[in-house]
Design goal:
mainly alpha, Serine Threonine Protein Phosphatase 5, Tetratricopeptide repeat
Length: 335
Amino acid sequence: MKKLLFIAVVFLVTVACEETQKKDVVEVAETPTEFSDSLGWINTQIIGNPSDPDLYMLKAAFLLRQGDLTQALEQADKAISLDSTQISFLVFKGDAQYDGKDIIGAKESYLKVLELDEKNIHANMKMGWVSLIAGLHEESFVYCNTVLRENQYLPEPYYLKGLCYKELVNFKFAVSNFRTATEQDNDYIEAWLQLGYMYDAADDTLAGAFFENALRIDSNNKDALYAFGMHLQNWGLTEEAITQYQHLIRVDDDYHDAFFNIGYVYLEQVQNYDSAIKYYNKVVALNPFNYKGYYNRGLAFERNNNMVMARTDFEKALELKADYTPAAEAMNRIN
C-alpha cells in the first residue's frame, strides 16, 4: 500500500530544472485507483498508517488542488515532522508558500532544502527569485550562478539575472542576459517582452521586433499586444497600433487601456473625434471613475464644437479629481 501511495504523488520528484518561474508548480500525477483521489479514502489510510509521511503528503497535495493552502501546509508539516530529510516534502511546502505569497515562509523552506543539498537547482532558483523580491540583487546573482554551474543551458537564471541588472539600471548586462535566455529557449516569451520594454524605453525601433517575437509565441498574449500597440502608437504608426489594440479587445473585451489608447489615437493623431468619443464611451462605461476618460472625451466633444457635452465631461472629471488641472483649464477655456 505504501508503494502505491508513493507512486501517486509526483511531488517526490525534487526539481524540474528546466521549468520557468511560472511553471514552478508541483503537480500531482493521476492516482492509481479511483479511490485514492478521495479525501475520505486518504483519511482512512492515515488512520491505519498514522506514521507514514507519504500519506500526509498525499493529503497535502489533494488539499492544495482543492485550493485549501492552510490545510495543505498543515499536512505537509506533519509529513516533515515524520521525515525532515525528504527534500521533496520541503520543496512542496516552499512552492506552496511561494505561490501563496508567503515569501518569508518559502525562504525558510528553500533554505532547509539547501542545507540538505546545497546544489539543488530548484531551491537555488527559487531563492534567486526570493532575493530579487527582497531587493538583494547580489544574493540573487549568487543563486543564479549556482544554478548555471549545474546547468548552463537553463534560460530562467539568465532571465532572472536580466531582471536584476534591469533594476540596477545596467542596460547592457540586462539585455545580454535576456538575449541569452532567448538563445537557450527561443520561446521564452517573458525574455522577449523584457527586451521589447527595454528597447522601447530607449526609443529604439528594434523593440517592435522583440514584441513581434513574443506574439509569434503567443498571438493572444495581452501584455505583448498592448506593448506592441503602444510602441507603434508612439512611433506614429496609427493604423498598425489600432490593429494591435483591436486584437487585444477581441482577446479581452474588458481591457480598459486598449479602448483608452484607441480613443487617444483617434483624438490626437487621427483627429477623428466621433471615433474618439465612441471609444471613450466604452472607457467610462468600464470604469465610471476614470477622470482622464471623461476629460479626453470632453476634449473630443470640444473639438467637435459640442460645448454642452464638453462642459459636462470636464465637470465630471473635476468631480472625480478636484485638483485635475487640465480639466480646470479646459473649463476656463470653454467658459
